[in-house]
Design a protein that fits this description.
It is a single chain. The protein is mainly alpha-helical. The chain contains six helices and four strands. It has a two-stranded antiparallel ribbon with strand order 1-2. Helix 2 packs across helix 4 and helix 3 packs parallel to helix 5. The longest helix has 28 residues. The radius of gyration is 36 Å and the shape is globular.
C-alpha cells in the first residue's frame, strides 16, 4: 500500500539526473588537455624557420647557375680565378635565353618603340634583367666567403658593359631609360603666432632655402630593374 501510494525513493545514479557531475568532470579534463596542446603547437610553429623570400630563392638559383657555367667553361674556371671579363662573357652567354627584341642598326624598326611587324633581329636579355642579376650575384659572392675588394661582379669593366647595354638598347628600342633622382629632404617653414614679426632678412632666408632645394644638383641612381628568372 505504501509502495503503491507513489512514495519517492533516492535518485537513481543511472538516470539522466546522475550524469551531471560526470559530464562536468569530462569537460574539465578536455579543456585542460586542449590548453596544454595549444601552447605546444604555437611553440613548434614559432621554432620552425621561415621560408626564404623570393629574392633569396632567386639569388641562390642565379649563384648555382653561375657556378655551373664556370664548371662547364672550356677550360674550366675556378671562382678564385674569375674576373670581370669572365662575368661579361657570362652575360653575353645568357643572351641566347633572352626574350627582348633588340633591333640592329640596319633594321627598319631601329628606334621604333612599337614596331608594326616582326623582324629578324635577335632576342637578348634586357638591360634591367642583367643589372638585377649582377646585383644578386655580387651579394651572393660575398655571402659565400668572397672578399668585397676582389668581387668580379663589382668590377669596373662590368659596370661599363652594363652602361653600354643600357644605352644601346635604349637607342635600338626607342625606349629611353630615365634615371631616378634621389629625393632630398624638404624644409618646411613653421608659422610662429605671436608678437614676433619677421624681418626682411628672414624672408630672404626662406627664399634661399627654397631656391636651394629647387636649383641644387641632386645625385642620380640607376633605375631599379625588375627581377627576372635566368635559366641555363
Amino acid at each position: 500500500m505504501d509502495s503503491a501510494s507513489g512514495g519517492t525513493g533516492p535518485p537513481d545514479p543511472n538516470t539522466s539526473g546522475g550524469e551531471g557531475p560526470s559530464s562536468a568532470a569530462t569537460g574539465s579534463i578536455a579543456a585542460a588537455t586542449a590548453g596544454a596542446v595549444v601552447p605546444a603547437a604555437a611553440a613548434e610553429a614559432s621554432s620552425s624557420p621561415a621560408p626564404p623570400s623570393r629574392y633569396e630563392s632567386q639569388k641562390r638559383r642565379d649563384w648555382n647557375t653561375f657556378l655551373q657555367y664556370l664548371k662547364n667553361h672550356k677550360p674550366p674556371l675556378t671562382l678564385a680565378r674569375c674576373s670581370g671579363a669572365h662575368v661579361i662573357e657570362f652575360l653575353k652567354y645568357l643572351d641566347q635565353f633572352g626574350k627582348t627584341k633588340v633591333h640592329a642598326a640596319g633594321c627598319p624598326y631601329f628606334g621604333h618603340p612599337n614596331p608594326p611587324a616582326p623582324c629578324a633581329c635577335p632576342l637578348k636579355q634586357a638591360w634591367g634583367s642583367l643589372d638585377a642579376l649582377i646585383g644578386r650575384l655580387r651579394a651572393a659572392y660575398e655571402e659565400n666567403g668572397g672578399r668585397p675588394e676582389s668581387n668580379p661582379f663589382g668590377a669596373r669593366a662590368v659596370r661599363i658593359y652594363l652602361r653600354e647595354v643600357r644605352e644601346g638598347q635604349a637607342k635600338a628600342r626607342g625606349i629611353p631609360y630615365e634615371k631616378k633622382k634621389r629625393k632630398r629632404p624638404t624644409v618646411t617653414a613653421t608659422a610662429v603666432v605671436g608678437n614676433v614679426s619677421a624681418g626682411p632678412s628672414q624672408g630672404g632666408g626662406d627664399g634661399d632655402v627654397d631656391g636651394g632645394d629647387g636649383g641644387g644638383g641632386s645625385s642620380t641612381t640607376a633605375a631599379d630593374a625588375a627581377t627576372t628568372s635566368t635559366a641555363v
